[in-house]
Write a structure and sequence with these properties.
1223 residues; alpha/beta; 11-stranded mixed β-sheet; 6-stranded mixed β-sheet; 49 helices; 9% strand; globular; Ald_DH/histidinol_DH; CDP1-like_a_solenoid_2; J domain-containing protein
């Protein structure tokens, strides 16, 4: 009896004629249903089999298959006919479950038959896998065509199935089919048909893309681009939307964020007229953003837009926006105007406004007392907010706020201040007409202008003998142009109280009293509340919640703004203008922290503000001080109204023009331009940045050494830490020059099927890293796809609307900040707001100079400040994504408002993070020589000592086998290495306390290191601390739950290991289960041991659940190799964030990385670049940077390499002896 495979070969011989059957090859078993291939049922007769065979054979698919594929299709059809035509062979086939063994040579033809018989899912799976491995083979176009047809079948099935996202699924299949056909230039008619289908479904496709979760930013950007094309770029006759553009936009709004809707209208081509509905959309989006961010000036802008819309349509009354205007009026604290707009200001007389009767009835129904309609107006406005604002956009647009809440709006301090100032401005005309004669008003307008320039002040003068403050006597009331009113008399009392209270009261308190004299009790109440809150917070020993602290900081910020606008201009120096603004910003920075420098506590802020006031006062001559007192008395007595008008204008301006807002506004205006910059232009920008960075590298190293302290290597240690930035810029440039699709050195499959890309080192970098191999392991089941953003653009897709990413910079290392900025720009296609950490913000101006080509074009901005500024940036509506490098507590404070996760995250935007690690160094026992021990002991010591241990990947834990005979010798060598290094000062805030806690927990720790006189002190006279080494710990005794963040090292000896393989299993389990974090781990293994226990070693590398695994080299080298990925192992959630989520670096732009593995040789000479304390690095590394930058010019690179070698030999590239080094 013939089997199916023998039938196939027999058919090949009988039909092909002169063609030879393919040679024996690997086969694959497929569920090839012969009945479906021939269109028969299982009860078919012998005659019907022959007829069906002839019919199917005479109707080959007309999509451009090659003759060879059609030939082998015929071979398989004949095999099917002969199998079903013989009763014995049919029985054997039926009993085998319709499985057929097909040679890989015949797979393309088999895929054709599978697709024709309806097995589209199997065709997509098999064909896509085959194309990844054989994309250049002759049969590849035929396989791609079969896969494309299968995608079309899947799209049709999705549409038939129905559901919420059927069009999304169908269009994705059609896009993939079109991509394959275009790539292999097949089936032009089918391409046209797919394009027509995609165009027909494009409106629903755009809406379903926009409705995806916010985390799927790339897909949503595609939806936004498609929406913009449908709405603006296509004429109504050609657009699938047709004439119902307004209806389409209404559906789109329900899937968008408010700022996205405004971005859509910003992209409106010139000359296009907006309909009334579209103008209403703009006003609603503006109001929504203002309500969401508690920015009342945006609500006022929306009210103006509603008013303009109503005036434009009042003739035909097509658009009744009285309700919208009334709601905005109430949000701005103007209830009388709201009632007037609704026709309810004089209900007794039957006055009717322009609003519908049902609205007025609603207000009356919800007002218990008909004489007080405010409750009903409140309910009406809240209902409008719920339906039109909160409910008018996507459900998560307001960060989990499911229902509108006017209480939160009016409780916001910024809103309260704005409403109070608006109320004062509204009451200004009546106040002026009642108190100031028109004839005198003109004269005093000139008087106020002159007084402004002469620094009208309410400050006391200093007694030269005692140094105390004495009040300045104001002018007698009789000398003023008018007699004092009761309000003015109250102002006199408060004014004197302000002067007399200045020496002992906090500055906000004094400012409140002074403001009361100038602007009245309303403004004073705000400042009084700020002062009371600050004093209570400072005096209270009990901790307050992060939410309360944030509200208090916002209140103090608003109070500071009001203080400066109302008071500072009245006590300024004679030369007004820029100096005055700088002084005001300095004082604002003391509270709000919006400028460079560490965040100030409330007490420190008060001291800084008072010192500035005294400095301003002391700069004046005695005559000027006396004159200011007289002018102040006249000003606050006679002209409070005019002063209030000027101060109100200044307050309104300051409320909406903070440094962060301005920076984000500039980025928001340029985000669309960035996504349109092609890869060649981006490569040119990186080249310009590289030139700047190399010129500034020494300055950065000098600044870092000044801040952290100078040791054996001088500036060499800091200079070495900048190497990853040079590498990152070069690697991203290579990726841009390759169109975002840079080819790896190799891609291979592991035995379990997981794919691995070999990416490092490339070009001439092996000169510094001989024998190193860097790999990116892809997530199981994922292929090596790269650069989704650039791939989409290259395939003709429209770029998205752009996005602003916030980078919260690390405080320990400037390379982390620079590389995070580069990743967000070039890997995630976002413009960047970089917020510098107060600990190392001295790097900010240097980074700004280095990245000047990006800053000047509006793609990058820098801001400064403390945690309050960071929180403000994170929750800012213009920020679309956040990346932070810091601690787990910092992440939780941002996401949950407390150091520990509680409830649901407060941020719905994409947040990625790198949060540190207790880094394990696994020492595999083996036949180590003395040289081996010295070499790798220095590797461990360098992993600890670099940056004084203030690294998220500092060596913290050495894991050894307790039964290893050489364990004691290795630990003694490690202790000697540490003892030969100079001690470092724990310069990072809080690190000294952690070291003290470590010493208290392990009193038997050995202090090591050389104490060199006159060295080892960071600025601020921080003393150097010895290295602390504790050995012989059991797994239960070790401190593994949090980072030690300093120069301390533990050794854990694992007992009861049966052999080396068992030790590796136990060490991996200990690192995975007990050591906090999943960022990086290092493993050191002798080549002979690796060869002897090859399977156990491979299992250990694969089993380490860390984002970076380095073999025979410190973890810090994994960070420096920028083509590799850097970040926590995938799987963390916001509630259990661990080491973070997401990857950076990744200059090959792989879409689905799992981890990186860096394999180093066992030993090599000269001393590795990362070994701390090397002499000559400071002089050699600038030449090394030039060598790296000249990779495309071998002759020039060789000359630079010679210079590197000369400087290296001069310093011997050896660890310096502290007593011999001259720094």
């Amino acid at each position: 009896m013939q089997t199916s495979s023998s039938i196939e070969l027999e058919a090949g011989r009988t039909t092909i004629g002169s063609r030879r059957a393919p040679a024996a090859a690997d086969t694959i078993t497929l569920p090839l249903d012969y009945y479906s291939c021939l269109g028969l049922s299982k009860s078919c007769s012998h005659t019907s089999v022959r007829q069906a065979y002839e019919r199917v054979l005479s109707q080959p698919p007309d999509v451009g298959y090659s003759q060879d594929t059609l030939f082998y299709r015929a071979v398989l059809l004949r095999a099917a006919a002969e199998c079903l035509g013989s009763l014995p062979s049919r029985r054997a086939y039926d009993s085998s479950g319709c499985n057929v063994a097909v040679s890989m040579h015949n797979l393309p033809a088999a895929l054709v038959l599978l697709q024709e018989s309806g097995e589209s899912g199997l065709v997509v799976e098999l064909g896509s896998s085959w194309l990844q491995q054989h994309s250049t083979e002759p049969f590849a176009p035929d396989v791609a065509t079969s896969v494309a047809l299968a995608h079309c079948d899947e799209a049709a099935a999705a549409l038939d199935a129905g559901g919420g996202t059927v069009v999304l699924q169908a269009c994705r299949h059609l896009e993939r089919a079109l991509q394959l056909l275009r790539e292999y230039k097949m089936a032009a008619n089918l391409q046209h048909l797919i394009m027509q289908t995609l165009e027909d479904y494009s409106p629903r496709y755009a809406l379903e893309l926009l409705a995806l979760p916010l985390e799927q930013q790339q897909q949503r950007q595609r939806g936004f681009s498609l929406l913009r094309k449908l709405a603006w770029e296509l004429p109504p006759k050609l657009s699938p939307v047709g004439k119902d553009r307004d209806g389409f936009l209404a559906k789109a709004r329900s899937a968008m964020m408010p700022h996205e809707l405004l971005d859509l209208y910003k992209s409106l081509p010139s000359g296009v007229q907006l309909s009334a509905f579209q103008r209403l959309d703009i006003a609603l989006a503006t109001a929504a953003i203002g309500y969401q961010r508690h920015q009342p000036h945006l609500v006022q802008r929306a009210a103006s837009l509603f008013q303009q819309l109503g005036e434009a349509d009042k003739k035909d009354r097509a658009t009744d926006i009285s309700l919208e205007r009334a709601a905005c009026a109430l949000l701005l604290g103007n209830a009388p105007q709201a009632l007037q707009l609704l026709g309810l200001d004089d209900a007794a007389d039957g006055h009717q406004g322009s609003c519908e009767d049902s609205v007025r009835e609603f207000v009356l129904a919800h007002s218990p007392d008909s004489s007080d309609l405010l409750p009903g107006l409140y309910v009406l406005s809240q209902a409008w907010l719920q339906e039109a604002v909160v409910g008018g956009f996507r459900p998560d647009a307001f960060e989990g706020q499911a229902a509108a809440d006017l209480g939160q709006w009016f409780a916001a301090r910024r809103v309260q201040l704005y409403i109070q100032v608006l109320a004062a401005v509204r009451n200004l005309p009546q106040f002026v007409t009642q108190t100031i004669p028109a004839a005198v008003a003109a004269f005093f307008a000139w008087l106020i202008k002159s007084a402004w320039d002469r620094l009208l002040g309410s400050l006391p003068k200093r007694n030269s003998s005692s140094g105390s403050l004495q009040p300045t006597e104001p002018m007698d009331a009789s000398s003023t142009p008018h007699s004092s009113t009761p309000v003015q008399q109250e102002g006199d009392i408060v004014y004197h109280q302000a002067i007399s209270s200045r020496p002992s009261s906090p500055t906000p308190r004094a400012a409140a009293l002074a403001a009361a004299a100038v602007a009245g009790p309303a403004a004073a109440a705000v400042l009084e509340q700020a002062a009371a809150g600050a004093a209570a917070r400072s005096a209270s020993a009990a901790p307050i919640s992060a939410e309360d602290e944030e509200q208090q900081l916002l209140l103090e910020a608003d109070a500071a703004e009001l203080e400066f606008s109302l008071c500072l201009r009245l006590k300024n120096q004679p030369a007004a203008g820029q100096d005055e603004q700088q002084q005001a910003h300095q004082r604002q920075g003391a509270l709000f922290g919006a400028k460079r420098g560490p965040a100030a506590t409330p007490d420190e802020a008060a001291r800084q503000m008072k010192a500035l006031e005294m400095q301003m006062w002391d700069s004046l001559e005695p005559e000027q001080q006396q004159a200011q007192g007289r002018w102040a008395a006249l000003a606050h007595k006679a002209w409070p109204a005019l002063l209030l008008a000027a101060a109100a204008a200044a307050a309104l301006l300051a409320a909406s023009t903070t440094e962060v807002d301005n920076a984000l506004q500039r980025l928001d205006e340029h985000k669309q331009k960035w996504v349109l910059v092609d890869t060649k232009q981006r490569a040119a920008l990186l080249t310009a940045c590289l030139k700047n960075f190399m010129a500034l590298a020494r300055d950065m190293a000098v600044e870092g050494t000044r801040a952290k302290g100078s040791y054996e290597g001088g500036i060499g240690d800091e200079m070495a830490s900048l190497t990853p930035v040079v590498s990152g810029i070069l690697e991203y440039r290579e990726a841009m020059m390759a169109g975002g699709q840079r080819k790896p050195l190799q891609v291979y499959r592991r035995p379990d099927g997981q794919q691995v890309a070999v990416v490092w080192p490339g070009n001439m970098v092996p000169a510094f890293f001989p024998g190193f191999v860097g790999e990116i392991w892809l997530q199981p089941g994922q292929g090596p796809s790269q650069g989704e953003v650039y791939r989409h653009k290259a395939e003709g897709g429209l770029p998205g609307p752009g996005s602003v990413a916030l980078v919260l910079g690390a405080g320990n290392q400037v390379p982390v900040v620079a590389l995070d900025i580069l990743h967000m720009l070039f890997a995630e296609d976002r413009v960047v707001l970089a917020k510098m950490n107060p600990v190392n913000d001295y790097y900010g101006p240097l980074l700004r100079q280095a990245f000047a080509p990006l800053v000047q074009r509006g793609f990058l901005e820098f801001v400064y400040g403390g945690a309050d500024v960071g929180a403000y940036c994170c929750h800012h509506g213009l920020v679309g994504a956040v990346h932070l490098t810091g601690s787990e507590a910092t992440y939780n404070n941002i996401m949950f408002g407390s150091p520990r996760p509680t409830g649901s995250p407060r941020l719905s935007k994409r947040v990625t993070a790198e949060l540190g690690n207790v880094t394990p160094y696994i020492i595999v026992p083996g036949p180590w020589s003395r040289d081996d021990m010295e070499y790798h002991a220095m590797n461990v010591a360098s992993g600890l000592a670099q940056n004084a241990g203030h690294n998220c990947i500092a060596a913290e834990l050495v894991i050894t086998d307790a039964s290893w005979p050489l364990r004691g010798a290795f630990l003694a060598t490690l202790a000697t290495c540490l003892d030969n290094l100079q001690r470092r000062a724990p310069w990072y805030p809080g690190s000294a306390a952690r070291i003290d806690a470590f010493k208290a927990r392990f009193p038997g720790a050995t202090p090591l290191g050389q104490a060199v006189p006159g060295k080892g002190q960071a600025p601020g006279h921080i003393p150097a601390e010895p290295w602390q080494l504790v050995t012989g710990l059991t797994p239960e005794q070790a401190q593994t739950s949090e980072e030690n963040w300093g120069g301390v090292l533990q050794e854990v000896a694992l007992p009861h290991c049966h052999d080396t393989a068992d030790f590796m299993r136990q060490a991996v389990d200990f690192a995975n289960e007990q050591c906090w974090g999943t960022l990086a781990a290092s493993l050191f293994i002798h080549p002979e041991t690796q060869q002897q226990y090859a399977d156990a070693f491979d299992a250990a590398v694969a089993g380490l659940r860390y984002g970076s695994v380095t073999v025979n080299t410190p973890s810090l080298v994994g960070f420096s190799a920028t083509p590799l990925v850097w970040g926590a192992f995938p799987g963390h959630t916001p509630q259990d964030i661990g080491s973070g989520v997401g990857f950076v670096h990744n200059t090959y732009l792989y879409d689905h990385p799992q981890k990186s593995v860096l394999r180093a040789p066992w030993r090599y000479s000269p001393q590795p670049l990362w070994s701390v304390g090397q002499i000559g690095l400071g002089a050699a590394l600038p030449w090394a940077f030039k060598f790296m930058a000249s990779q495309h010019n071998p002759a020039l690179a060789l000359s630079y390499l010679v210079a590197v070698a000369l400087h290296a030999l001069r310093g011997s590239w050896a660890v310096a002896k502290p007593q011999k080094e001259k720094v």
